[in-house]
From TrEMBL:
Belongs to the protein kinase superfamily. ADCK protein kinase family. It comes from Rotaria socialis. This is ABC1 atypical kinase-like domain-containing protein. Residues 2-183 form the ABC1 atypical kinase-like domain. The lineage of its organism: Eukaryota, Metazoa, Spiralia, Gnathifera, Rotifera. Pfam families: ABC1 (PF03109). PANTHER family: CHAPERONE-ACTIVITY OF BC1 COMPLEX CABC1 -RELATED (PTHR10566), PROTEIN ACTIVITY OF BC1 COMPLEX KINASE 7, CHLOROPLASTIC (PTHR10566:SF113). SUPFAM superfamilies: Protein kinase-like (PK-like) (SSF56112).
Amino acid sequence: VSQLIDEEFGCEVSDLFSYLSPEPIAAASLAEVYEGRLKSTDERVAVKLQYIDLQDRFTGDMLTIRMILYAIGRIFPKFEFSWMIDSVKSNLERELDFKLEGENAEQCYAQLSPHLKYIYVPKVFWEYTTKRVLVMEYIDGIKISDTKKLQEANLPLNEVDTKLVEAMAFQIFHSGFVHADPHVFFSFYSCRICIHFFLNLAR
């Protein structure tokens, strides 16, 4: 954590955050997420930090795949899939850019919120966001797949389902900017739907 913050901002963790959880509260293939508080405003935030060696591993993996496809093509001339690596490389490069994820979040909210008032997207703190670090407003909520907790919170499942379907349908049939990972949708505050994770959006 300290190394990544130093590489991206040229300072210590304590210069940016008055608190950063000692362990990640979530983790995936590209990054870990920590709970924190901004030193400047004391706002509660979610801090997404890309794995420190991910960029290097990505470059090496792409080179390895390209060499394998080239070798297969030499042995089997009719095997022509070298075009695939350029497409994969382009898509993965976009996923490794957390500034793009922040832009996707704002675009998604701008398109949905005027029509679906129950949709919420956490605020992006751009002054703390880079290609490898994304800082967003921290939102407490319940995963839409956790039906037991939704019921315990007195959130009607049929209303949550309806709102989720409406949100997805609007993206597919109206905006054309579609969130491709709906498992990261949350419900909170009187059955509002909060959307997280904006790397996989299809146009």
